[in-house]
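User: My advisor, Dr. K., asked me to get a structural model of this assembly before our group meeting. I'm new to this, so sorry if the format is off. These are the inputs:
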Amino acid sequence: MSVNIFAYNIPFISIFLMMLAAIITPILPNRKRIPEKLSCAVVFVNVILSAYLIYVLTNSGGSLTFNFAMGNFPAPWGNELRAGPLEAILSFAFCVSMLLSLMGNSDSTAEDIPEKRRVIFCVLVNLLTASLLALTYTNDIFTAYVFIEINTIAACAIVAVKESPESIRAALRYMIMSSVGSGLLLIAICLLYDLTGHLSMQNMNLVIKNLIANREYIMPLTVALALATIGLAIKSALYPFASWLPDAHGNSTNVSSAILSGLVLKGHIFLLIKIFVRVFGLEAIHDLRMDNIIFALGIIAMIMGSVNALSQVNVKRMIAWSSVAQVGYIFLGIGLNTNAGIAAACLHIIVHATVKPMLYAAVSGLSSAAGHSKSLHALMGTFYVNRWAGLGLIAGAFSMMGIPAFAGFASKLSLMLASFDSPVMIFSLAALVTSSVLNALYYVPAVIVVLTHDKTKPKVHMNVSMIYKISMGIFIALTIYLGLFCVTLLRLLTRGVIVLG
Amino acid sequence: MFAKLVVNHYEAAAVIIFGIGLSNLLLQRNLIKKIIGLNIMNTSVYLFLAAKGYISGRAAPLLIQDAAGNWINDASVYVNPVPSGLVLTGIVVSLSVTAFALALTLRLYESYATLNIDEALLKMTREQEALEENLLQESDEDVLL
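Assistant: The format is fine. Below is the predicted structure of the whole assembly, which you can bring to the meeting.
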């Protein structure tokens, strides 16, 4: 191993810390918001750990990646975690986004969830983070399935934690669709295990390469790949399978919406990237023609997500439908089936994981300024009541439209650059432009409404808490940083995708 | 084609059962039946895995003694133990998912008095409409006063 012993253990430590936090949260005293502070603290520790891991991996000069053997048992007997630049960067992004979502929405959490249930909420958040980190780091496909199920239960439970009848109904719908997705993934994993005789990703890859070179078992391989893709597409809300998303994200409390949109979808997408790049390999994906299907579905999602968002009057549902469109962008990048395309997709994962929680936090600030109404009209003039939230909404909207110097511009630009080498360039460019215009069609009115003075309403004064200002400030700074300085990050992501295969 | 189906009859049966479970999970209207469908789907996967792990003529993967009383360490005597491990893990996972789904169903029934998720949606929209009508009537009365 080319890294020091502490860095070598970081993938395990970060997952283990989150699980430990989930276990000890219920025995902590439930006052002064101690459980939430503990969650934030542990996630913050994870931010530092993964930042250190990125630093070590990029400066090790060696192979850039290592496999962590649990309990020192080598691969076929023991369980393995794998860390490379891609995994380290994504877990850093997930932890930062989780921390800022928890901080930025803490006021609305206090209003929506009664104090007695906030302990359970914190347990769920810790488990969710643990499962996300495990999905990012795992090298064993069955472990991935187990953590997907943990993720599903935690995600459905944080939708239902609001306790309103609508949120229970939304959680059940989410649960059913999720179960379909994980069922399909499970049978796909079993088929792959049947065909390859392995569960660890790189061993599966070796066998699959042989099978494809000899043109053996092509049909079962295609079926397994299709089942895994559809299963994960349902879980990550790719358009025709996204009917559950607006309900679940629109009816839950703000912090849940932020976590679900920003993180839970991304964990599943990254697992799909791992299956594509690491288990099958890009050539095999092209051979089995899955890249074209993903590409086409991505384009449809980009357009249809935005078209559906146009007709929403509830701001949260509008942002939820916009998530469907953004997931389409990511799948477009994966569908290009090149290292550059997948790196651009990973950049968009990071961008969306920053911008979407910011938008939800902004909407939560604005709607509490408008007396907790979620309809777009009620938000008129709220910019002047809560300027930080207003700025967040404007930065988020600019980023979604792809205005230069904001995060969305960088990822859209890199998606465009990646598609120049592809035979389907014209479709991808047309879809990117159309979708940006559609994004503008519903985000610009929202910004205009928020900025318009409402003369009929009496002037309201609102105390914006310090923690909200800080997290909003970091969110906006990150958005602009990603928009201006993404070149180094993109280069690192590309190297990460290359060593992932 | 059919020869392969006969050779792999366990797997074929497992996939058919999986299809039955999946269509129940998607198409049934009653939530309890949906959850039963989910369980059928998961159980078919266990059948698939158990069939894959079994090698005919071999012993269960627990150390056994030969006639002279020596422990047999040779792996070729035993069936593959990994699928059984996967089945155990799968059972735990599906148990927890089922328990959680049933708990949510109970809450839905408490709020809407129905086990049909579409009917629950319908009831909710009706309630909202009734609420809005009441509000409208009240504002009309305000105008009349």
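One thing worth pointing out at the meeting: DSSP finds 20 helices and two strands in chain A.

User: Perfect, thanks a lot.
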